Amino acid sequence: MPRPVKRALPLFALCAAVLALGACGSSNNDSGAGATVDNGAGGQRGGTLTLLTSQDIQSLDPGITYGSLDLNLLSSAVRTLYAYAPDNPTDIQPDLAASPPQVSPDGKTLTVRIRSGVRFGPPVNREVTSRDVKYAIERGFNPNVANPYASTYYGDVVGAARATGGPIAGIKTPDDQTIVFELTRPTASLLAQATVLPLSAPVPPEYAKPFDAKSPSTYGNHLVSSGPYMIPADRDGDVLGNGYVPGRSLRLVRNPNWSAATDDRPAYLNEVDFRIGGSTTVSGRQVLAGDGLVLGDSPTPPLVKKAYQTARDQIFFSPGAGSRYAALNTAIPPFDDANLRKAVAAALDREQMRRIRGGKIVGDIASHFLYPGVLGFEEAGGLEGTGVDFLANPEGDRALAERYMRAAGYADGRYTGDETLQVVGLAGAPDSNDAQILDQTLQDLGFKTQLKLVDVSVMYGRFCGVPRARVHVCPNLGWIRDFADPQTVLNPAFNGEFIFPENNPNWPQLNDPAINRAMARAELTVGDQARADAWGAIDRQVTATGAAIPWLYDRQPNVFSADVRCVPELWNQGHCDLAYTSLK
Description:
CATH superfamily of the largest domain: Periplasmic binding protein-like II
Distance between the termini: 49 Å
Oligomer: single chain
Helix content: 10-25%
Mean pLDDT: 92
Strand content: 15-25%
Largest sheet: 6 strands, mixed
Low-confidence stretches: 1-32
């Protein structure tokens, strides 16, 4: 079984508590209120776009990076085998590949033809071949690179299970333009979709191997471009202190070896400048009032309110930006009792949790775990939900909660056990407010609690993702798919095979044999409708356990200046796609 993957949803402030935006309602279009979906056609060429962000880059190495901002940057600098058009987050299209993926009838072989004429930028300056893609994927298994999802999506490739960075027998390159993946299971269709992630971007082995020999690899500091933009470097390819100053700035300029004849992306901009650090509050005001600016952070509550009310065409609410839920630890008392879990879910006012974030404008009330835009969402129940009674009332149902408490053996409808619940949530409004709502719900049901509010890395890295921490409740969890397949949402999050002592993505530690077996079957299911049916049914099974409480289907706000024609990357939370965005 492959290792789990997660791209944790950025749980930053979207709207202040008690904002009146909810009263405004929501748009009838899929993107929510604000700017609309754009495919970028007919943009104006030239100019410099400036992106303001308080966050630094996590990694420039396509074999390592997994953060949303990093994916936004790298999508314009390197070319993966397949990609999503900015306005279509469902159907992969050829990028470095020359044609659609070829899957064998038995589902155990994937063949990809690579475009001719794609060239690496300086200092490599040669044509990209299939061997560069082969090396890129193999280095993902190198402990010095330690790609977070390589074994999850490439783990069925013959020889990958024992790979440590050397050649993988199941990856073959019969010629410079062909790469073939031979698999142990019929999962070639899923693997084809996984090639939208940056691990499939070519890496020149003769250049990268000395960097990959270091622990950790330093290739990210010497990134070679295969896309329309590159980070300026010295003549040895070192970007540090040249195009990238950690914590301060990063520049993307045109790759002189890029040819529009080999790429469907227009690459209108001459340059993109990242200004790193500083206050999101100040940056947000500059973006809204300025020229040629994009905000790389989640906008502050006042900015969302101002943009929505006075500059609606400068804010885009990305649909399908993920889901938010609370996890109840099923592995330890008291939430090893399903009736107690359902009591908490029934009592929780999920509408209040959404209202604190801004109301309808920031998303729909969640009722299960596959979210809008993900295959299987409608089969699991759509916005109406799966039909479980404990999630029927978004404002909470105290009488139903008490019935579940009595079914768990507490005759007066309140918990009288000895456990003191450890509740770990996120610091900073509105996340802290949402955590406090759930904490108060627990207390109202008779539970004694200890609430800790910490930053996001501590919440996942020390508490909610570490089973030995024995956290009972995690209110502020978020999930976003890796690509357009429901397996990437449900399998790592709720399959008992994915419970690990560190970096555990199965936060409720759900280990239901029937669900595990259903997921094992669904992994091998072929065809969109068949997979939608299979994973939709699994979503219903997971929801029925009460192991987690879904409370919001997110719409991520993104803000930009009036003269920026932002073309949102719908697959990546609506960030302005740097290879399609232009200045008006």
